[in-house]
Amino acid sequence: MENSHAGEKFPTRAKDVSLLELRQRLAEFACARGWDRYHSPRNLLLALVGEVGELSEIFQWKGEVGRGLPNWTSHDKEHLAEELSDVLLYLIQLADVCDLDLGQAALSKIIKNAAKYPVTVPPSHAATD
Ligand SMILES: Nc1ccn([C@H]2C[C@H](O)[C@@H](COP(=O)(O)OP(=O)(O)OP(=O)(O)O)O2)c(=O)n1
After folding, report:
1. C-beta 57 within 6 A of ligand 1
2. Domain 2-61+68-111 in CATH: superfamily?
3. For the NTP pyrophosphohydrolase MazG-like domain, which residue ranges apply (predicted)?
């Protein structure tokens, strides 16, 4: 089943969305509008930071927010999803124009993080013999 959004066809619920698909769609979007010439690394970084600011505004002055966002309306959650998406989409484009494979880089970083912060057994779980 599909629905229409801004004249385009999107699956109602994608099974999985790859970084590659997002990167390709974003490149097509920018190219079709002649915007790729403005999508320099610096411009995309500034756009990304601007969207992080918009994301921050959602949480501003709210106090601590519980996991799962209890008491948030569906409108609030939809707004949050849009701002998170803007951040992701600019981040993907920034990595693209820097010729970086963001997925591979993130996987490598996770492995590096695990080596830097090894799992330690809490004293209460250690062998007692
Ligand atoms: N040169 C551009 C302009 C926009 N976008 C895309 C990436 C973002 O997902 C979204 C950003 O669009 P807006 O600048 O209109 O920002 P908002 O969607 O946040 O709108 P507003 O600032 O009015 O809340 O569009 C893009 O890729 N390249």
Report:
1. no
2. MazG-like (1.10.287.1080)
3. 40-110
Residue type, 122: P
DSSP the chain: -EEEETTEEEESS-S---HHHHHHHHHHHHHHTT-GGG--HHHHHHHHHHHHHHHHHHHTTS----TT-TT--HHHHHHHHHHHHHHHHHHHHHHHHTT--HHHHHHHHHHHHHHHS-----GGGS---
Cα end-to-end span (Å), the chain: 60
Here the ipTM equals 0.96
Sketch the domain layout of the chain as residue ranges.
2-61+68-111
80-92 per-position pLDDT tens digit: 999 999 999 999 9
Contact 10 CB / ligand 1 (< 6 Å): no
* Residue 35 in contact with ligand 1 by CB distance below 6 A: yes
Global pTM reads: 0.87
